[in-house]
Write a structure and sequence with these properties.
Length: 187
């Protein structure tokens, strides 16, 4: 996968999205900026008069200066504080974020894949959820993580049964990501 400039920077918004960190997600009122980011690159999910963002989406938008996030006491949250808070809910948050950021920076739309038993589903460039199916399901892992053949086979079977390619995002100690695509072959 070739590197590409972060696509969200190309999207012109007039103001930052104002959001609040609520337990396991980031929530913002519906506004022009949130609608533009959703329409152009599918950030968040609209639920009534709010947009809900996953932790990885919220941190990415915070880091790319598209969003300001406050806590329940209306205190602005910076990057490091956000990471600390997210890690309380998601043990593997930093690894997941590194993979999410790398894929988004390359121009891919990345959404949750919880119903597939994976971390993310990834759409090929130019494809939006609803227009077509995701091409990959992604499992982020640290380079120091070990797995059994049974766990690996289970991940591969999930990808195969959902007609998606399996992508393993391996994050090293410097937060650099390498991707390994796994596929079935018939001898």
């Amino acid at each position: 996968m070739p590197k590409k400039k972060i696509d969200v920077e190309k999207i012109e918004i007039k103001e930052k999205i104002n959001a609040e960190l609520e337990r396991e997600r980031v929530v913002a009122n519906v506004c022009d900026e949130a609608n533009v980011l959703y329409d152009k690159s599918r950030f968040g999910e609209r639920v009534g008069e709010k947009f809900q963002y996953s932790f990885v989406e919220g941190l990415f938008l915070l880091e790319t200066k598209r969003m300001d996030i406050v806590d329940s006491k209306n205190k602005k949250i910076n990057f490091d504080d956000f990471v600390k808070k997210a890690r309380r809910y998601e043990k593997n948050f930093w690894i997941r974020y590194c993979v999410f950021k790398d894929l988004r920076s390359r121009g891919y739309i990345v959404k949750t894949a919880l119903k597939f038993g994976a971390d993310f589903r990834v759409y090929d460039r130019g494809v939006k959820p609803g227009d077509d199916h995701a091409k990959w399901i992604v499992y982020p892992v640290s380079e120091t993580t070990s797995t059994t053949w049974y766990e690996f086979a289970a991940k591969n079977r999930v990808a195969h049964s959902t007609r998606k390619n399996l992508l393993i995002g391996v994050v090293d100690d410097e937060a650099e990501v390498s991707f390994w695509e796994v596929s079935w072959i018939r001898p």
